[in-house]
Design a protein that fits this description.
Immunoglobulin-like; 10 helices; Rossmann fold; alpha/beta; 3 domains; 441 residues; 31% strand
């Protein structure tokens, strides 16, 4: 049986102040009024006790219904539709309280609901704004109503089974332009070359190269037949996200991982728009998530569900583990776009070793956020002290190491692209479009 707690209502407090306290004072000061004051106190106490005994009637037949699943987006206002059911159909005035999970900002944790006479249910919206991404649960809510005589506030807890999924926000200002570019589409890209995918045979036309002639068909038909190729459409594109310790670095109000997740999903939308297959992988010291490349709305939702709970892990990335995993899982040549941080020399060396074999079968690109201090020497003319000179020297050394890393990776067929934080998503789509245009895949 559900336990109902009671607390004094404002009516009980006022009645105690207007009746109970004067009666007790009169009985103590005026001996002749003692009997009357005791009778009033007894009647008042009896009413209070009877009302407390009938407290279960205050919420009899009332239950709260919350949805089982709600999908929100980080930093965007949202609402949950809550329904209050009444079995009796009598008029009710009820307060419903829902405690917001940690990381949520609720407009009000308590809300009053009025059920008119004859109404079996009433709906209201619980407004909130999630500030964190991930999976959250609401396991209980609370109800409050007046007792039959209105002397007590009766409270009861209700079980709930609400799961809230908070996804990355793809509509932040830095990503709006890239989002429109990737989802709403561009003009058709001009392809370089004739394409690699066989389309059909046709009659020979003057100017066709000898390498385009289908010699077997020519022999069968007794006249020159040419092969026609088209640009491959359903190529596989994978974004590989590193959620190890360096992904917890801050960029403005976000961390590196938040920007990587948003950019990955937008690149996926761009790939689908261009007719390619899109997949996702995430890793730290182990493989955290993997979704094989496909297309369609259901697949995009599956990719989003696969990564929305990712959080930075305080471990170093295991590039050998993810490289081995991808070599075993991906049989078809694919574009692998790594989103990682390689300004740590040890991590850079591990990445070079791990991608050496991976690059023989697949096209590997590595995108990383350029460290703010990594700039050529004296590019910033704002030098006011010797500290500024030493700071620029340190930045120049970091920039030089990145250039050396780019050259080392380029020799084994891997391209490293240091990207600016404010244009991360747009730059990734630009890299992808360049691959498509040059038919590198």
């Amino acid at each position: 049986m559900t336990t109902c707690a009671i607390v004094p209502s404002p009516r009980l407090i006022w009645l105690t102040a207007l009746i109970g306290f004067p009666a007790a004072t009169a009985g103590a000061v005026l001996p002749g009024a003692r009997l009357v004051s005791m009778a009033l106190a007894a009647i008042f106490l009896t009413m209070v006790l009877i009302d407390a005994a009938l407290r279960r009637r205050a919420l009899a037949g009332i239950r709260v219904e919350l949805p089982e699943l709600a999908r929100f987006f980080k930093d965007r206002d949202a609402e949950i539709r809550v329904r209050v059911h009444s079995e009796s159909g009598r008029a009710w005035r009820i307060r419903v309280g829902i405690v917001a999970p940690e990381g949520f900002e609720a407009v009000a944790e308590e809300q009053e609901v009025i059920l008119p006479a004859g109404a079996r249910a009433a709906d209201f919206a619980w407004l909130c704004t999630p500030r964190r991404r991930g999976r959250f649960r609401v396991d209980a809510c609370s109800l409050e109503a007046l007792s039959p005589l209105g002397l007590w506030l009766v409270r009861r807890g209700e079980d709930a089974n609400l799961e809230i999924r908070v996804y990355p926000n793809l509509r932040r200002d830095p990503d709006l332009k890239a989002l429109r570019r990737g989802v709403q589409g561009l003009h058709a890209l001009r392809q370089v070359g004739r394409g690699r995918e066989f389309e059909k045979l046709r009659e020979y036309v003057a100017g066709d190269g000898y390498d385009e002639i289908h010699w077997k068909a020519t022999a069968r038909r007794g006249r020159p037949i040419t092969k026609v190729f088209q640009v491959e459409r359903t190529q596989e594109v994978y974004v590989v996200i590193d959620n190890s310790r360096l992904s917890a670095r801050t960029i403005g109000n976000d961390i590196v991982l938040e920007r990587a997740l948003s950019s990955a999903l937008i690149v996926g939308a761009a790939a689908e728009r261009r007719g390619d297959l899109f997949g996702l992988a995430a890793f730290s010291h182990q493989v955290e998530a993997f979704t094989r490349a496909r297309n369609g709305k259901a697949h995009y939702a599956a990719c989003r569900d696969a990564i929305y709970e990712l959080q930075p892990r305080p471990v170093s990335p295991d590039f050998d583990e993810i490289a081995t995993f991808l070599r075993l899982r991906l049989r078809r040549r694919a574009l692998l776009l790594f989103l990682t941080e390689l300004d740590d020399p040890v991590l850079a060396e591990n990445f070079i070793r791990a991608t050496k074999l991976l690059a023989r079968r697949h096209l590997v690109l590595a995108g990383m956020l350029r460290p703010a201090e990594a700039r050529p020497l004296f590019q910033d003319s704002d030098i006011k002290s010797s500290d500024d000179i030493y700071r620029q020297l340190a930045g120049h050394l970091a920039w030089r190491k990145l250039r050396e890393l780019e050259a080392t990776l380029a020799r084994q067929g891997v391209r490293l692209a240091p990207l600016e934080p404010q244009s991360l998503t747009g730059s990734l789509i630009g890299l992808y479009d360049e691959v498509k245009q040059r038919q590198l895949l």
